[in-house]
# Entry
Amino acid sequence: MSDKGSHQEPPLPPDLDWLEQLSEEDDGDLVAVADYGQKRSNDETARMFKLRRNLDQLDSLHRQKEHGVLKTREELKLCSETVKSLEKQRDTLEEQIDQQKAADNSVAVFRLRTQHKHLCQKLQSEEEVEGRIDTELKQLKRELNELEVELSRFSSLRQELQEEERLFQDLKVQKAATRLRQERDATRNIQLKIQQLKDKQVTMKKKEEHECLKETEEHQANRRITDKYLKETRKRLHRQEVEKEEQNRQLQEKRIQVVESLKSNIAATHESLRIKQNRAKANAQEREQREKLLRESLDVQGINSLRHMHQQKQLETIKQQQEEFEEKQKSKKVIVEKNLQREQLVKSRTRQQAKLPNISGTDKLSSLGRVGDSLLHYLESRPPSAREERATAQLRDTCGLSSSDDEEPEETMRQEEDQLSLADSLAQPECSGLWDEKYKKLLNEKTTLVQTEVKQEEAAMTSGKLNVPAKPVHGKKWKGPLFISKPEVILFKDFEVGKMYKNKFVLTNTSYTKNHCKLLGVSAQLKDFITINFKPAGSLSVGMSCDMQAVFQPMINEDLEGDLHFSTAAGPFSVPVRCTIKKCELEVDSQLVDFGSHVVGQTISRTITLTNKGALATLFSLDTSTWLSPESHHVQMPSPVSTPTCQETSSQNTTCGSQKSSREIRTKQERQKLCEAAQQEKPGEVSEGSAVSPEAIPEATDAELKLDEDTSDISLGSVTEGEIGTFESTKLEVVFAPTVPGAATLDFHIKFSDQSSQPIPIHVRGTAVSIPVWVDRPTVDLKICMFDRLYQDTVAVHSRASAALKVTFDVCPEMRKHMKLLPKTGFIQAQSSFNAQLKFLPRLSLSKDAPKYFDSDTGVLEVPMTVQVAGQVQPVHFTVQAVVTCTDLQFEPTEVDFGYCSVFHSVRSRVRLSNLSLLPQEFGFLGVPEFIEVQPNDGFGTLLPQETLDLDLILSANEAREYNFQLTCKTEINRDFLLSCRAVGVRPPLELSHSLIQFRATALCGNSQAIIYLTNPHANHNQSKQPVTSVVRDVKNPEGPRLFSFTLPKDSDISITPSAGRLLPGQRCKVQVTFRPRLLEQDIREEALRVLQRAKLLRQKELEMKRLTEQETKKEIPVESAKGKKSPANRKHSKKPDEPKRDQQSESPNPLDIQPGSEHYEQARASLLCSVTQRWSDFIVPCFISDGDQSDDDSEAPPTWSAFNTLYLKLQCPAVRPSIVVISNNGHSIIDFHQVAVGQRVLKKFTVQNISSEPLDLRTSLLDIHGPISLLNALRCIRPGGKHTLLFAFSPDQEKTYCETLDICDHKMSLEVTLRGEGVVPDVTSSHLGGLLDFGCVLEKESTSQVVKLHNNSAVEVGFRALLASLSPPRPQNAAEIVAVMLGDYTDSEVQPIVGKLNINGNVSFVCYTGTQNYSGQSVFSAGPVKGNIAPGQSQDITVTFQPDHQSVKYSDKLTIQLMNKTEVCVMDLKGAASSHNMYLHGGDVLNVPFEPLLLPLTPSQAQPKDESEGSSEPRFTVLLTLRARCSGGGITPAVRELQVGCISSNKKSGEFYLDNVASLQQQGFSIEPSKGTVEAGHTRTIKVTWIPHRGHKPYEVVQTCVPLTVKGDENQVYRVTLMAFVSHTAD
# Structure
């Protein structure tokens, strides 16, 4: 085999298959794209990365091969050395063997030969190993050579790839630079906008301050006016209090008098009450005596005394009611008289309107006449007829008289008078003419013609025969309707007057030919109420239809019926129309109530259900009277609410009141007649005690007495009257309480207030028995029973007999197999009871054994049982009732096939379990295998009657095999029901560490993460030993690399990284699953649209209210006639521009127009975040696994996927409303500081709000403690609805980009905040490099300024500050610095910018670089602006102003301009002087401390001497000038000093100066040049003083002299200049 392989070229290993693919490609594919100025395509970039990956893999393989060759060489070398050592040992042993042979030592020879044999075997094995290693080394060398050859083939490709990579990196750098430039431009624009916004805010603030000041002034003015009126009000209140006190005093006196009179009245009342009580007691005793005598007389006569006394009491009650009725009648007569007067007035007015041709008016007059007659009859106590009642009701409807007329009669009469007066004025002309008669004739003629035409048309319509012949088609004549209407009858049910109803119907052509449909009209009774919306459809083919709409607007409250008449080419047809008003449809469930037989002393109740199926409510009452008059068919009861309960009652209030009064009067007359007849028939039965008014006897006939006897044991329940609403029902109770044995009956009627509802008669009957033995339960109800189950109950038999009785229980023969009564015979003792045991065990043969008593369809069992009593003819009967049901449970389906199930997942199948029984059954699955689960409740539960429960069977296969098993469901009565199941278990090649991820409750805009692992395990060699079925063998997969891919649901909040990849055997991949719940864009846009619509409606309402207000204002303002004519035109012109606005407002915005990031979008998003509720989402993410690795032959061919290898990852994602939301930065959680100068500090606010219902304790994650971003304020507990602002600071210290993430957490959610910014080094230059900035000398209380320009050379906005030493806190200094500052660097100036402060020890603790200050307290030097920002590339001018308020030469300060990072741009020493005159003198020695006190100088009177003339010639100022000549090297250097004389340029006047006694100075060695001169305004002159000592000058001799210096300006000033000179021998 090795020889054959040496002649053939060995194939490349699988890892190098891509080399062949690259070699087969064209050369053009291996050349990089030359033109990188254009955009590279994704394919080219991907190809570049693929080449780099493949070349790196080739290099890695080359290194592995080299390492393998080197390692094999080392092994070969080691093996060769081992062979050589073994050969040496062999040679040594052979020599020893020869020596021992020579010595004839056989034992040693044998031992040495054994060692030699083992050594030879070892040597042979080592040589074999050496040969094998040598062969392997050659093979590796050959493979390495082949690999090097392949590498040399791709050397040019490697160079081209490197060039491509270099160009790609350059392009990437260019893109990054372009992106950076764009970001900087955007940042600059944002900064400009911020600056504009700040300016705008400043302007608005000033405006607000102005308005606030104005409001304050107005408030003060109003306050003064209020105080004025308040004083007046206090005076008035004080006066009223005095008057009120006087009234209270008088009232108190009156009360005292009333109390005294009340005491006397109480005493008198007590006395009268005592007398009345005694009288009442005497009357009661007398009444009792009369009743006793009457009862005894009645018992003697054989009359029932109890019944008679009861009737007497009822008569007394009726008499009291009659008296109350008469009082009410008197009060109602007054109201009726008022109504009669009002109706007579209406009648007289309507007669005047009768002259107009109004037909309806005559009907009203006739009805008014009938109303008057009915009222007259009412006063005469005569009931009106039915016709008159209907006429009166119509009059009330037409005239609009209701119960409200009684409350407001005056207002109604006033309105009627106004209407009638208006009608009179319009109906009657001032003068009559001949045209009246002509008009009446023409009107009569036209009316008669129209009436004849209408009558003819109606007759034709009603007959249904029009002059249109029916045409036969093809010899066939159509029989039946030409058109079919759907619906067949147009019905308007339960309509109300004044409302509009629409009904649509369709007409379909059902004839043989094309036909058309023409609307002829509506029936006469419907013309005024129904209109038809009909658009002619033309000719209709067979089967075609047309739509019509009937509009019904009722004007009268009554039922209407009619037809819609149509004509066609084949004949006429009509569609019926029915209009019904709201009616009462009343019925009861039973008109016969039978209580059956009951023993005396029991109380039994039955209920009757009264149902109203109509749309009109009504009142009902129960009437137990035996006869009903036509007028008493209906009941009228007052409602506790003043408003009427229905339309009929409210419209006929007056009529019903008159009918009631007439009925009561008539009833009174009839009762009087009946009472007289009863007294004539039985004059002796009435004694003196029963002498009651005959008018109060309601019932005296034999029938009525019989009714009382019958109805004494049957009575009505508590509900005897009430209201029944629309489509409602009520329960009426009837109670049967027999007192004596016998039959009892009761007939009563249910009367209603509705006129159209007839009374419903109810008949009640019952029988009272008094047998000695009875059963307390006539019906023994065993409820619902199951087959083959034993049920027991107790039957109690009672006896009222005085002796023991024998009872025998008898069961019918058909039921003896199923039912027993034990014992069968027993004795019941006197006045006792006996209990028998009833046992019921229904068999399955019950339907065959007792079909007479058992209904197999319904399961109802009714068995009559008999109790035979010895000596009693009538047995005691009772009934045993039960409902017998089965105990079966049913599975659907009866067999479950799970299919192929992965061993890593569970498969669920749903089964329906139905309970066929009428009783609930408990069930449970027992003996369930460990690989299957039954849910819910682990397969245990209770099934309600006829209930079907869905059960989930969850199979979790634990190994790859075939499953066949049965599940056993056991019920509580120990019945088993089997369910067959089968499945096939398979094992996918990859494994997931977790198949279920339960995310925590994640808030919206938050995130939750989970980590799982996907593993490609090694092959399990133990599986091959297990038996594998054919089905499982087909599903089994080969080993090797696998491709996987997660497929996410569409529009889900889930992300998986990585979502696809390739796993080698034994490799594990980490997978991160992230859940980020977000709001849907469509929901946010819809919410924004709703917000816009609400805002639009509010604007429309405001505009409408504004328009109404303007109209009312225009009505109130009087307008001249000339202007009034032009107003319509103006209104037209004013309305024209409003019309397009309304059109624009009417257009609803498109949700797609609302872009993310806009104001409306963010408002809607915040609204949804606050109103969102809990959301639960379940996702099942499939992970598809390939059947194998990618094909080596065709790399572009897609891999094959199998459904058996799919893994499933279940995700449970609960999303809740966030407890905190971001309300700043438009709801974004990204804080961008942009570019910030290094050392500068920028603050950003981040506001969150608690939208939960509980307080939150917030906490944050840690930021980088060495980083530039920090959180300044601490977190606190936020109450519900509260807000908290977090303050972040960004102060970069390096020039680079920073980005950090901060988590704001509570116990429910975590809000991730991204903080980012970029540090930039600032570069700011100043026009002044620092040092001294001298303002010169100015007049006091005047100012001068100088400008310092700052320029920002950096790319970011830089903040600066201008700090004055006089306005800054002092800095500690040491003693050396204090001395240096006090001496100063400016020797030619008197200004020494220091102020020292001593501590307790007398040492200077700190110093400020400030000189003399103003007396006013204001700073001498000021710089503006004090702080600000300089935009990139811009400049900023800082104006330094010097403004002294008094004369001094010691003004000084120090100005420091520094950036926000405390970097100093420049430091300037400010110096200035002030003079009270235009001429000034500078120079000389310092005669005092370098600062001045802030105390004001002395007054001029104290400072100046009394003699002004003398004071003017004397010098006012003293100047000391010390000249020091230096002696060095035997020579003397002259001393030179200078004085400056200046003239301030403010008044533009020049000045002069001169020195006196100059000659005397020269004698002492002093020379002054010039001694006099002129100084122009704004200039200075220098006076040079030189001292040269004479030859005879003695050392250490001081020469001193004085010379006056006169300065002439706006005022002459004389300075006394003291010259002091000496020679110094020191070196300094």
